[in-house]
Amino acid sequence: MDDATTRGSLTPHEARRRFRAGLVTPTAGWSRGWAQANLLVLPREEAYDFLVFAQRNPRACPLLEVLEPGAVAGALLDGDVRTDLPAYRVFRDGELVEEPTDLLGWWRDDLVSFLIGCSFTFEDALQVAGIEVRHQSEGVNVPMYRTTRRCRPAGALSGPLVVSMRPVPADRVADAVRVTGRYPGVHGAPVHVGDPAALGITDLDRPDYGDAVTVRPGEVPVFWACGVTPQAAVVESRPGLALTHAPGHMLVTDARDTDLLLA
Amino acid sequence: MDDATTRGSLTPHEARRRFRAGLVTPTAGWSRGWAQANLLVLPREEAYDFLVFAQRNPRACPLLEVLEPGAVAGALLDGDVRTDLPAYRVFRDGELVEEPTDLLGWWRDDLVSFLIGCSFTFEDALQVAGIEVRHQSEGVNVPMYRTTRRCRPAGALSGPLVVSMRPVPADRVADAVRVTGRYPGVHGAPVHVGDPAALGITDLDRPDYGDAVTVRPGEVPVFWACGVTPQAAVVESRPGLALTHAPGHMLVTDARDTDLLLA
With an 8 Å Cβ cutoff, are A189 and B263 in contact? Predict the structure, then answer.
């Protein structure tokens, strides 16, 4: 399953089956043409604050779906959010306490699952436009950074904006903006182009999540809002329990990329 | 205040002052260049369901702002949601019980105000594109219709899609789609073009809300999702208390139309 063509051609159902069976890997490049999603699971009591947080921070938290309390499947997922992602994170009072490969032992009937758009979804469109996606070429996870830009708080939830970074040749930056801008449901256009220091990023080679990638001469680091932002808010705001995907290890959904295009 | 140029040139602050002082009028064409919003107010206990309802029905319920429980002002409104609209509706258990000009007598500290994008916002852009807005020309409220299309339910909330209608010359329909499609935060592109019967609308001359307008030969009725949709859900789902704007009598916000353009 190391072959890019093979993993790219798997249906979402097949990809999820492999992850359910225990395969742990970042999901960039998997099931090309199918949308990917971030996962955040909160108790119903804390879910209201996150709904407002997402409304106030739509670039970082574009909600694709909110499952009913206790539900583990929905229109975007003919499967089980507790088992079908490659890796998860469990936070108690804001502390990362476990990185399991399923959430079965943590599940409760009052838990609400939020599926949040993931920028892996537009990477296929970038590649079709001839823009290389470096972390895919280098076979690593996408680099993600906690920034000094603050999200708008909501109730008990506050935290920094987290961004993903892709290096883009200077003469293709405008194309990257236009291509990804057509996908607002999966973070849309970049929030920042060049100048990492203005976001408080001191060293591109030391991402807070994921892996560093090569930035070549003539390339500009381009930053998109990232669905790991809720995890940073969880760490800062310390809800009693929060379950998430492991950064880069996403839910492969049953929605096509094109379903997320501007309607 | 009957003069279109005058009402169009008022600042949001000035327009709201007149409504606060008691003027009752539909707000299409007021404060050109400034965004308008639908209002829905629900007790905090019922607000969760509406947040999910809005997420599941983004064309009808594009949320511009969710105020903190009890709050009457926010980033979009340097004023008071309880007094600054021309007219309101009060629903108890789904029944319309009053149409007051302020909500002061109904206010409680647990009430959450939702500001929802209104298609009046893109009417200026339509006119700039040379597309006449008939209800403005005829000096009446926009016609709105309850359709047979169902919204996706959320918790206790369910109901039909409500649409607004503007007649557009057949050779300008594509332009109307493109112009309004740039404003997804205020309902965006039409949900339906022509064929009212397919939406269950039997007589365009008898709208369920607002006023009928002339449809001339060579014009096509074009339908946009409408922020009265939450009111139809309130009637059907019967929350204990719900406060809303009166259809067509909107909040004139402190956001510019252009703030709602595609980012």
Answer: yes
Nearest chain B CA: its distance from A252 CA (Å): 20
Q: Same domain for A106 and A134?
A: no
B126 within some domain:
yes
B188 → closest Cβ in A51, A66, A263: A263
Which domain does A196 fall in, by range? 122-225
Does this complex have an ipTM over 0.90? Answer: no
Residue A111 included in any domain: yes
A4 to chain B, closest Cα gap in Å: 33
* Sign of the alpha-carbon dihedral angle for B134, B138, B142, B148: negative
- The verdict on residue B230 lying in a domain is no
Q: Are A115 and A75 in contact (CB under 8 A)?
A: no
Contact state of B188 with A63 under an 8 Å Cβ cutoff:
no
Mapped to the 3 state alphabet, what secondary structure does A26-37 carry?
Answer: CCCCCCCCEEEE
A·B CB contacts under 8 A: 41
Residues of B in contact with A70 (CB under 8 A): none
Contact B90, B243 (CB under 8 A): yes
Tell whether B12 and B57 lie within a shared domain.
Answer: yes
Cβ A184–B188 below 8 Å, yes or no?
Answer: no
Whether residue B103 sits in one domain with residue B10: yes
Q: Above 70 in pLDDT, residue A156?
A: yes
Give the closest of A47, A56, A263 to B189, CB-based: A263
Angle at B110 between CA B108 and CA B113, to 5 degrees: 90
d(CA A122, CA A134): 14
Rounded (5°) CA angle B224-B228-B231: 150
Out of A51, A59, A65, whose CB is closest to B48? A51
Q: CATH no. for residue B98? A: 3.40.1640.10
What is the per-residue pLDDT across A21-49, written as a single tens digit (0 to 9) for each? Answer: 999 999 999 999 999 999 999 999 999 99
Looking up residue B180, the CATH number of its domain turns out to be: 3.30.2040.10
Distance from CA of B170 to the nearest CA of A (A): 21
Do residues A9 and A79 share a domain?
A: yes
In a domain, B159, yes or no: yes
Q: Is the CB of residue A199 less than 8 Å from the CB of residue A148?
A: yes
Alpha-carbon distance of B75 to B116, in angstroms, equals: 14
Q: Please state, rounded to an integer, the average pLDDT across all residues of chain B.
A: 95
d(CA A129, CA A201): 28
Minimal C-alpha gap between B136 and chain A (Å)? 27
Nearest partner of B75 among B65, B90, B85, judged by Cα: B65
